[in-house]
Amino acid sequence: MWTGFKRVVRSGFVGFWRNAFVSLAAVFVMTVTLFVIGSSMMLNQLLEVSLENIQSRVDINVYFNTEAEIIDVNALQNELESLPEVTEVIFTSREDALAEFRERHRNDELTIQALEELGENPLGASLSIRTRDTSQYDSVAAFLEEQDTIMSGGVPLIDRVNYNRNREAIGRLTAIINAVEQSTLVALVVLVIAAVLITFNTVRLAIYTAREEISVMRLVGASNMYIRGPFMLQGIMYGLIAGLLALLIMYPILLWIGPATESFFEFNLFSYFVNDFSKVFRTVVGVGVVLGFISSTLAVSRYLRV
Amino acid sequence: MIYFENVSKHYNGNSVALEDVTFQVDPKEFVSIVGHSGAGKTSLLRMLIAEDRPSAGQVFFESLDIHKIPRAKLPKYRRKIGTVFQDFKLLPHLTAYENIAFAMEANGRADSEIAENVPQALNLVDLDNKAWNFPHELSGGEKQRVAIARAIVNQPDIIIADEPTGNLDPIATYEVVQILRKINDLGTTVIMTTHNKGVIDELGRRVITMDEGRIVRDDQEGKYVL
To answer: What is the ipTM of this complex?
Structure first.
C-alpha cells in the first residue's frame, strides 16, 4: 500500500516535470485565478469592515441652537430615552463641544485664532442618539420633527438634525459592496472555467505523453488507481503550487498597501492577512487543490479508460 | 486451464474475426496458433487478455468466465498473464533493467523483491550484461528478450506471445523461441501466434491452425500446414 502510494507520488512528479512548460501554463492560469479569489476576499473584508464602521457611527445628532436652555435640552433627552427603539442618548454640552473642537484643531492655528477672535462659544449643545437598528432612525427623525419647538425670540430650539447624510453614505457603500461582489463573481466564474479547461488539457496532454507507459501498465495488470493516481495528483499539484504562488504574490502587495488602508479605512489589510492567515491559506490553497483535482479527474475519466 | 466455448466475434455485424471457436489449453502446454494475416489469431489472444469481448460464446480461465470479470478486478486477472508483442512495447526512456522493474512496480511488488527478481529474469533471457542499456542500444532479438523477461518477472501462469518473432532475423528468432521453450519447461503455459514455418517445425509442439476465424486443424505434434 505504502510502496504503491510512494510510486504514484513519484510518477506524479515525473509527469509534472516531463511536461514542465505545459504544467507551467496550468499553474500560471490557476495562480491568476487564485490571486483574484484572494484579492476579492481582501477587498470584501475591507469594504465590510468600513460598512460596519460607518454603521456603528450612525446616529442622529441633534444640534441645538446656542441660546437653547439646558432644561429644554434635558427634557428632550428624557423624552427620547423613553422611546422604546432608542438605546442611548449622549449629551454633549456647549463647553464639551468647544473643548472637543479645540482638541481636534489643536494643530490648526488659524482656526484656533478665529475662535479666539470670536470671543464667545459658537457651538451649541448636542444630543447623539443611537437606536437598536438602523431602520429605526426614521421614526426617531419623525419624532424629532414633531418636537421642533420654537423658543422665545422666534429661534428654533433645534438648529439641525444630521441623519440623512450618513444614510446616503451607507446606501452608497452597500451599493459599492454589491457591485464589487457581482463583478468579482463574474470575473471569477470566467477565470475558474479557464483554469479548469487549461488544467484539463494539461492533464490530457500528460496522459497522451505517457500513453506507452499506460498501455504497458495495463498489460502487466497495474490497478486502476496506480495508473490514474499520478495524473490526478498532477492536477492537485498544479492547484497546490498555484495557491502557494498566489499567497506569495499577495504578501508584498498587501505589505505595501497595508499602511494606506490603515489610514484610509482604519483597517490594516496586511495585519488581517497575517492574523487570519490560516483562513486565507485554507481558502486560496483549498480552492486551488479542489479545482486541480476536479479538472484532472475529469481528464482522467474522459481519456483514461482503464 | 483455458477453455474457449463456441466463441464468435463479429465486427460491425458482418465482418467476421472469429467463428464458433472451441478449444482447450491444458496447464504447461506450449500451443502455437498459426494462420494467415486476418485469420483471427490476434482476436483470439485479445479475448484472452480481456481486451475484447466475444459476440457469442464464453472464454474461461480455470473456472472464471473472463468476460464476466468486473472492471475493477480485471487488473488482478491480467497479472496471471504475461504478454509479449511483435513490437516489444518497451519504454524507450528506461533501461532494460528499469523496463522489467517497471512491470513489478506497477504490480505493487516491494523494492526488495524487485532487486531480487529482475536480475534473475535478465539471467533467464541471457541479458545480464545488458541490464543498463536502453532499448535503442539493443538489437531486435535483445529487445524481445527484455520484453519476455518483463512478461515472466511477475511469475504469470500463462505467457501470451503475439508474433514474438515477427520482426526478428533467423538467429534472433531461434534464441527467442529457445527462451520461450525454456520458460515452458519451467512450468509456464505458453500460447504463441506466428506465421514462421521454421519456428513451428523446430518446436514440434501442439499447433492450432486458423483460417477465416475458424479452427481448421489442431495437431498435438504439429507441422506448419497451410
So the answer is: 0.79
